[in-house]
Amino acid sequence: MNWFILIVAGLFESGFAFCLGKMKEVSGTAYWLWGAGFLLCLAASMLLLAKAVQTLPIGTAYPVWTGIGAVGTVVLGILFFHEPVSFLRLFFITTLIASIIGLKVVS
Predict the structure, then answer these.
(1) Is 37:80 a contact under the CB 8 Å cutoff?
(2) How far apart (Å, rounded) are the C-alpha atoms in residues 85 and 30?
(3) CA–CA separation, 19 vs 77, rounded Å?
(4) How far apart are alpha carbons 28 and 107 in whole angstroms?
(5) How far is the C-alpha of 75 from the C-alpha of 89, rounded, in Å?
(6) Straight-line distance from the first to the last Cα atom of the chain, in angstroms, rounded to the nearest whole number
(7) Could you give the CA distance from residue 6 to residue 27 in angstroms, rounded to a whole number?
(8) Is 57 helix (H, G, I), strand (E, B) or coil?
(9) Which single residue of 9, 37, 59, 88 has CA 20 to 30 Å from 28?
């Protein structure tokens, strides 16, 4: 169950990075609404991470959490912010995913 909580925490990490990206594009009320989304995602991510590390080793949980957030943020950047897609970028994201899976397997 705590692995599931950790995955959701990582997705919320991608969510707060997405909100930061949207804040960069807007102003006025929309800026503050995306800022509120950022704070909500940040709080949810941190609280879920704290819950997950009650039973998972921090040395495994933290890299998995940041890895999920990093991969999710890159995917969101490509899909929503039109960030470049290159072979090397996809290669290194793939190696990051393989590393996350490897940490899960050896824990």
Answers:
(1) no
(2) 28
(3) 11
(4) 46
(5) 11
(6) 14
(7) 33
(8) coil
(9) 9
- Tell me how many degrees the CA angle 51-14-84 measures, rounded to the nearest 5: 155
Q: How far apart are CA 68 and CA 76, in angstroms?
A: 12
C-alpha to C-alpha distance for 16 and 42, rounded to whole angstroms: 6
Contact status, residue 29 vs residue 89, Cβ threshold 8 Å: no
Structure tokens at 11: 């997705």
Contact indicator for 19, 35 with CB cutoff of 8 Å:
yes
pTM of the model: 0.91
Joined tokens for residue 67: 């890895």
* C-alpha span between 6 and 15 (Å, rounded): 14
